[in-house]
Design a protein that fits this description.
Length: about 375
C-alpha cells in the first residue's frame, strides 16, 4: 500500500508542469509529503487504538459507591480511588463519589442507562442487593446485570453474623439457647444482610428478628454501637479494626468455611435453606465488584481491567488496605468475573427464586 501511494505521488509529479528553476524544490516537497503520508499510515496500523484517542491524560474518572460514606463498600471504593489512577495510562485523577439507594440498585440503574460508556464513569454498587434484585426479577432493577462491563473485584468476601459483646452471646450454641429475640439490622430487604438471617430463623430456628431499611452499613453499625440492634450479617471490613480486636463485636457464623472453629452456612441442614444460601452468597463470591456501563469499548475495558489487577497486586495498595483493616483478598480479573456472573444467573431454580421473592415482598 505504501509503494502504491509513492507511485501515485510520482505519477502526480510527472503530470504537473514544473519550471526548470523549481524542480529541486518540488522534488523535496513531494518526498516529504510522501513520507508524512506513509508515517501516518504506519501509526494508524501500529499504534493501539487507545493511544490514538485523547486517552486519560488530563482527565478525571468518577468512581461511585452505591452506599453512604463510612461502610464497607464505601471504604473499599475510596481505597481504589486513591490508587487506581496510578496504574491507568495517563494517570487520571479518580474522584470518589456516593450514590446510595436501594442496596446499590440506584447506582446500577444509573450506570446502565445514564452513564456514558466512555471509561470516565465507573462504580461499585455493592454485592447482594444490586446482584440479587436483577437475578430474581425485581422491577426496580432496570438493568441486565450480565451486560455491565465487569472490570474486576476483590476476592470472595466471607460475610459473617456479628453480635455485640453486651448481648452475652459468644457463639452459635449460645444463640440457639437464648430466649430473647436477637435484632438483626439489615440494608435493603433484598440484600443478604436481611434475607440470610431470615432464612436462618425460619429453617434453623435461630431467634433472629430482622429490621431492614438501613441506608448503609455505617448507619447499621452506629445503631449496633447504641444498642438499638444486636447483630449484623456483613464482612469484617465493615467495622473499625480496633472494635474487632477488642472483642466489642464477635463473629458467631460465617458464609464459607474459612475461619477455623467457626460454623458456616455449609453446616445448614435443610435443603431449601442451603439452596437459598447458595443464591444469597453468590454475590459474596464476587467480592466487591468494580463495573462500568454496558458497551464500554474493548480498548478501554482492557485498560481498566489490567489497571485494576495491577493496582490490587501492588505493594502500596495492599499495605494501605491492611492499615485500614480492609480485607481485599486476591483480585479477580474482569473477564472471568463476567463469565461467572452470566453463569450464576442461569443456575437458579425457580422454586428458590419464588421463595426469595416472598422474603423481599415481591409478587
Amino acid at each position: 500500500m505504501q509503494s502504491g501511494r509513492i507511485e501515485m505521488a510520482r505519477k502526480g509529479d510527472r503530470s504537473t508542469p514544473v519550471l526548470p528553476v523549481d524542480r529541486e524544490r518540488q522534488t523535496r516537497s513531494a518526498f516529504f509529503a510522501t513520507f508524512t503520508s506513509s508515517l501516518a499510515f504506519l501509526l494508524a496500523v501500529c499504534v493501539p487504538a487507545f493511544a490514538q484517542s485523547p486517552g486519560y491524560a488530563g482527565k478525571s474518572i468518577t468512581l461511585y459507591a452505591g452506599f453512604t460514606p463510612g461502610g464497607g463498600v464505601d471504604s473499599e471504593m475510596r481505597l481504589i480511588a486513591q490508587f487506581l489512577g496510578r496504574h491507568v495510562p495517563g494517570a487520571p485523577n479518580v474522584q470518589p463519589m456516593n450514590m446510595p439507594g436501594a442496596g446499590g440498585i440506584l447506582l446500577g440503574n444509573h450506570l446502565y442507562a445514564i452513564a456514558r460508556p466512555d471509561g470516565l464513569t465507573i462504580g461499585m454498587p455493592g454485592r447482594s442487593g444490586f446482584f440479587l434484585a436483577a437475578a430474581v426479577g425485581d422491577s426496580s432493577a432496570r438493568y441486565d446485570i450480565a451486560k455491565f462491563t465487569w472490570l474486576g473485584s476483590s476476592g470472595a468476601n466471607n460475610l459473617m453474623l456479628w453480635v455485640r459483646k453486651g448481648l452475652g452471646v459468644r457463639n452459635l450454641d449460645d444463640l440457639r439457647k437464648t430466649k430473647t429475640p436477637v435484632v438483626v439490622g439489615g440494608l435493603a430487604s433484598s440484600s443478604a444482610s436481611s434475607v440470610v438471617p431470615a432464612v436462618l430463623a425460619k429453617y434453623e430456628g435461630l431467634p433472629l428478628r430482622v429490621i431492614s431499611g438501613y441506608t448503609g452499613l455505617s448507619e447499621a453499625t452506629l445503631a449496633m454501637e447504641r444498642g438499638e440492634i444486636d447483630a449484623i450479617y456483613t464482612h469484617v471490613g465493615t467495622f473499625r479494626p480496633d472494635r474487632v480486636a477488642s472483642g466489642e463485636i464477635l463473629p458467631i457464623l460465617q458464609s464459607f468455611p474459612v475461619e477455623p472453629n467457626l460454623p458456616s452456612l455449609d453446616d445448614v441442614k435443610a435443603p431449601r435453606a442451603r439452596a437459598l444460601n447458595n443464591l444469597l452468597t453468590a454475590p459474596s463470591r464476587l467480592g466487591a465488584p468494580l463495573i462500568g456501563p454496558p458497551n464500554l469499548p474493548r480498548d478501554l475495558t482492557a485498560i481498566l481491567r489490567d489497571a485494576y489487577v495491577a493496582m490490587a497486586e501492588s505493594k502500596d495498595y495492599v499495605e494501605e488496605a491492611r492499615r485500614r483493616g480492609i480485607d481485599v483478598g486476591k483480585p479477580n480479573h474482569g473477564e472471568p468475573l463476567q463469565e461467572f456472573v452470566t453463569k450464576s444467573l442461569g443456575d437458579i431454580p425457580k422454586d428458590v427464586v419464588d421463595e426469595y421473592r416472598g422474603y423481599v415482598g415481591m409478587k
